[in-house]
Amino acid sequence: MNFSINRVAFIKALNVVQRAISAKTTIPILTGLKIDVTDHEIMLTGSNADISIQTTISTSNPDNELQIQATGSLVLSPARFFAEIVKKLPDRELQVDVADQYQTTIKSGNSEFNINGLDANGYPHLPEIDHEHQIELPAKLLREVISQTVIAVSKQESRPILTGVHFTLEKHLLAVATDSHRLSQREVELESPLTSPADFVIPGDSLKELSRMLDDEEDLIKLSLSENQVLFTFGETQFYSRLLEGNYPDTSRLIPNSSDTKVQFAAGELLAAVERASLLSHESRNNVIKLTIKPADKQVMITGNSPDVGKVEENLEPQALSGNDLEISFNPDYLREALRVFGSVPVEVAFTSALRPFTIKPLERPDEFIQLITPVRTF
């Protein structure tokens, strides 16, 4: 194997696949970077068993300045060490030459490194993906769906299925996450409905990593499914993630069909008030704030309290208010995280009772996005 390449282009691709490589793995070869060189391209692959990322550098792109003298495959481990070498090399051009026993020479300018490589046959194969279940989504929309739902995934491994986001696909894409204390649900109409429905759960950590890789320059993301893997394809990159096994609980029955008290706020204004109230609640062992709603008096008050530090009270100015009087207590962190994904749009917060979950929806297109939070019993 022998090739030369623009070092900046190589580093860019290297940074992409390194996201999937972990120094902590039970499979030693996965600490390495797999390099496959064909007649016309280089494929870099990184994996940690949960996610795998593969990206391609092609000779057809003149910016890559890629020249291939000999094809082949190998694994360089640890990948972190190889990446540090490449980033610190002095010249514009990088040359890689692999001799017998995978002895690898890396040259740039007057600098030359010789490192040991590994046989690529020991590297796990990427999964076969069935393209029967396949949809395309705008990158910006997919990032939005992820950010709006992944906040509600569980961090407790006692119920592994809840550590992921549940997707159902047919005429619509429905994404739901819950940790049993809160729920986030987003629905998107598909331009090209699937001929048969699909139902799967993607780990929240995988979706967070995918979201970091997407930018608004990407146009469409192609989503493909196999029995236990999902593949996202964008640009020159393929992002694989395992799927969680098991049946996701039926969350549709958790969302109230009616409410007794409704309050409308600008999401940003309510968020700022919650953050102020939580300054004191975070000093308390319970971390709870209270909302007191009196529609007849057109009054909404938020209260945070810490026995050791003090108390904060703030009268809010809702855009609209209706229904019954109510006092309800809840974890401010849940509401704060929910409000952040709404940005500055107006929202409606709907309550049923002091002990029933309440919902937050955007005033515009309320059927598309809903956040649900379970209150805290304080008596």
Automatic annotation (TrEMBL):
Q: What is its main location?
A: cytoplasm
Q: Which InterPro entries match?
A: DNA_clamp_sf (IPR046938), DNA_polIII_beta (IPR001001), DNA_polIII_beta_C (IPR022635), DNA_polIII_beta_cen (IPR022637), DNA_polIII_beta_N (IPR022634)
Q: Which GO terms describe its cellular component?
A: cytoplasm; DNA polymerase III complex
Give the protein's biological function.
Answer: Confers DNA tethering and processivity to DNA polymerases and other proteins. Acts as a clamp, forming a ring around DNA (a reaction catalyzed by the clamp-loading complex) which diffuses in an ATP-independent manner freely and bidirectionally along dsDNA. Initially characterized for its ability to contact the catalytic subunit of DNA polymerase III (Pol III), a complex, multichain enzyme responsible for most of the replicative synthesis in bacteria; Pol III exhibits 3'-5' exonuclease proofreading activity.
Species in which this protein is naturally found:
Fructilactobacillus florum 8D
Report domain DNA polymerase III beta sliding clamp C-terminal positions: 253-376
Tell me the protein's name: Beta sliding clamp
Question: Which GO biological process categories is it annotated with?
Answer: DNA strand elongation involved in DNA replication
Q: Where's the DNA polymerase III beta sliding clamp N-terminal domain? A: 1-127
Tell me which SUPFAM superfamilies the record gives: DNA clamp (SSF55979)
